[in-house]
Amino acid sequence: MRSTTNASVAISPSKSPFANMVWVPGGTFLMGSNRHYAEEAPAHSVTVDGFWVDQYSVTNEDFRRFVEATGYITVAERPPDPADYPGAKPELLVPASVVFRKPPAPVDLRDCFQWWSYVPGANWRHPEGPSSTLKDRCRHPVVHVAYEDAVAYAEWIGKELPTEAEWEFAARGGLEGAEFVWGDEFAPGGKYMANTWQGRFPWENLKNDGFEGTAPVGSFAPNGFGLYDMAGNVWEWTTDWYQPHAQAVHSCCASINPRGGDRDQSHDPIAAGGSIPRKVMKGGSYLCAPNYCRRYRPAARMAQPVDTSTCHLGFRLIARARQ
Questions:
Q1: Peptide bond into 90 cis (omega under 30)
Q2: Environment class of residue 61 by beta-carbon count within 10 Å: exposed (0-12), middle (13-18) or buried (19+)?
Q3: Which domain holds residue 31?
Q4: Residue 268: what pLDDT?
Q5: Closest CA to 216 of 90, 87, 59, 110
Q6: How far apart are the C-alpha atoms of 141 and 316, rounded to whole Å?
Q7: ω into residue 42 within 30 of 0, thus cis?
Q8: Could you tell me how far CA 200 lies from the centroid of its own chain?
Q9: Is residue 50 part of a domain?
Q10: Is 90 contained in some domain?
Q11: Mode of pairing for the β-strands spanning 313-314 and 235-241
Q12: Secondary structure (H, E, C), the chain
């Protein structure tokens, strides 16, 4: 039996500030992993204070209420500013977002353009493109939200995005060093615990977990803190600028409530000549498979350009206790 996280004794505030939030007590845990992808290493000790966290990812229904109340227009629904993308083809400077398209046969896994497409008219209302809708998907996580969209929603409702450390601590659910958010076995007793990809990515999805694409939030068992979908379904934004763990470990105050990273060192060396800063996203998605992107684990992390929305990236929010 795995030992629980070395959590400090924290008394939960008497009442949640919002519906469907749970209190995660502060504590010290081992963040990252030395056993998987290089960007997760080194594993290192981190302490976070207690906070409230959404039980579920923000849904299409939640986001619709925000848009109706404010008139907000997401990044994917706006034409890009040509000044931000010098040299870009004019046909690409239209409202669009990134959509997964399943190829009919095996492809070269080194070329992600075999399954990713920049689709004009794709956005949170039209997840697969202009002809798609949110019919029967009110309780699915909202996707096609860029970082500023998530921040705008958070400010409207009065919450915050979590740091990477807060997100990972919450995802682990009190399990110290466990492989997954529920333990060490991927499918205990043959039961699938998250919405991930079964089969040979990207062309064969066996749907053994019952889903192809996003699933309604709460479709799988919660972790030890009562949080749903902390692995799989959709990646989730955090507030941290992306930097290697090794760099974070040696920075000032990295072990106590670490926040931020360095924006100037978070840029994507591939896109736009390195001009696009990146945030950390966590949790993996329905597109994570054993043969590609085995990142449905709490230690997993990826860098995401802040201007880019996709069909497998959403968010959940936290509320910090008032001092």
A1: no
A2: middle
A3: 6-320
A4: 53
A5: 59
A6: 9
A7: yes
A8: 23
A9: yes
A10: yes
A11: parallel
A12: CCCECEECCCCCCCCCCCCCEEEECCEEEEECCCCCCHHHCCCEEEEECCEEEECCCCEHHHHHHHHHHHCCCCHHHCCCCHHHCCCCCHHHCCCEEEEECCCCCCCCCCCHHHCEEEEECCECCECCCCCCCCCCCCCCECCCCCHHHHHHHHHHHCCECCCHHHHHHHHHCCECCCCECCECCCCHHHCCCCECCCCCCCCCCCCCCCCCCCCCCCCCCCCCCCCCCCCECCEEEEEEECCCHHHHHCCCCCCECCCCCCHHHCECCCHHHHCCEEEEEECCCCCCECCECCCCCCCCEEEEECCCCECCEECCCEEECCC
CATH number of the domain enclosing 303: 3.90.1580.10
Half-sphere exposure of 75 (CA within 13 A, CB side): 20
Orientation of helix 60-70 relative to helix 147-157, angle to 10°? 70
pLDDT in tens, 108-146: 999 999 999 999 999 999 999 999 999 999 999 999 999
Supply 73's token pair: 């227009």
Phi, psi of 292 (to 5 degrees): -165, 125
| Tens-digit pLDDT string for the chain (323 aa) | 344 444 333 446 778 889 999 999 999 999 999 999 999 999 999 999 999 999 999 999 999 999 999 999 999 999 999 988 988 999 889 999 999 999 999 999 999 999 999 999 999 999 999 999 999 999 999 999 999 999 999 999 999 999 999 999 999 999 999 999 999 999 999 999 999 999 999 999 999 999 999 999 999 999 999 999 999 999 999 999 999 887 766 554 568 999 877 776 666 554 444 578 999 999 999 999 999 999 999 999 999 999 999 999 999 999 998 75
In a domain, 1, yes or no: no
User: What pTM was estimated for this model as a whole?
Assistant: 0.93
Q: From CA 187, how far away is CA 303, in angstroms rounded?
A: 27
Number of structural domains the chain divides into: 1
Give yes or no for a contact between 125 and 198, defined as CB atoms under 8 angstroms apart. Answer: no
